[in-house]
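Slide 14.
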Amino acid sequence: MRTIRQLLAGEDEIQLAVRLALLALLIYWSFVVIRPFVPILAWSMVLTVALYPVFNWLSRLLGHRPKTAATILTLINLGIVIGPATWLGLGAVEGLRSFAAQLSAGTVAIPSPPPSVRDWPIIGQQAYGFWDQASTNLRALVGQVAPQLKPLAGTMLGLAGDAGVGTLKFLVAVALTGFLFPAGPRLVAASKRFLSRVVAERSVDFLALAGATIRSVAQGVIGIAVAQGLVIGIIMKLADVPWAGLLAFAVMMLGILQIGSAIIVIPVLIWVWMTKSFAVALVITLCILPASLADNVLKPIVMGRGLTTPALVIFLGVIGGTLAHGIVGLFIGPIILAVVWELLTAWVRDDDPLTIASDTDVVAKDRELGKV
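Slide 15: predicted structure.
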């Protein structure tokens, strides 16, 4: 026969199992409720961490008025999103829809070369022949594979349709950062308390590493790519380059993937020199070339020497984030994966995370000011 102690122990185990099941149900239910807002919350936190040094500097400049500084910085960010970003975004959406329609109809083609190409010195005849052959062959090829390209056209139309929702998410996330800036120290303290339950001995170090990584990727990869896409897109718009918005979006994507904008810029410059006057083409070239090469100078300055995230991790973050969360995921995906990669690398090597992150020259200051 079972003793009274065994019966009581069995009842305690049942109660514990019931409590754990209820707790798991509440956690799952909470996740289901907040899941639609996860991209917005993630992007707002990334923006807060990335721009907190600017906010802190502006707050001190205004006489330690954090609410005023948060309002000014939020209005500037909203102006960027609503202004040039939306302008180029609408051009990208229109370009995607047009290209998807041409894919579906099988009418995608490289324009035939103008006769003036023959007059180019040395390579004129060869360039004209290669261009003409590529234009003819592409028309024939697209006509043959048009049925197989229709699913791709549907995907592109879906991406274009998601752009409007993505823009709205951006606006909400930017507005939310205005409330998170003044609450930065309290959020850092709460994060430290939470991490102390998970990694008690290294919670502060891991939090500093996460903050440094977010800033490095957000400013050095995402920020520079977005700025480069905007500047080059504006130049192309002013130059009346066809599909300027879509090409600017491609420049931004290539910048995030660490490939570079030369794939887009060189054909655009060739088109400009063929269709514009010498003076106009020269001005456009002098404007667009520095913008396309600026990332080579700015990235080492902004990112420092400490980020060791492989390009493959960034690439997977871009693709996976876009598939999971649409346009917003394009930006937060690589940041999240970069943070996870840096933390796992520090944990596996059993190194002090601050040793890895200190090369960014921000972690020491962040620990003093509570700016993670």
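Speaker note: The two ends are 60 Å apart (CA to CA).
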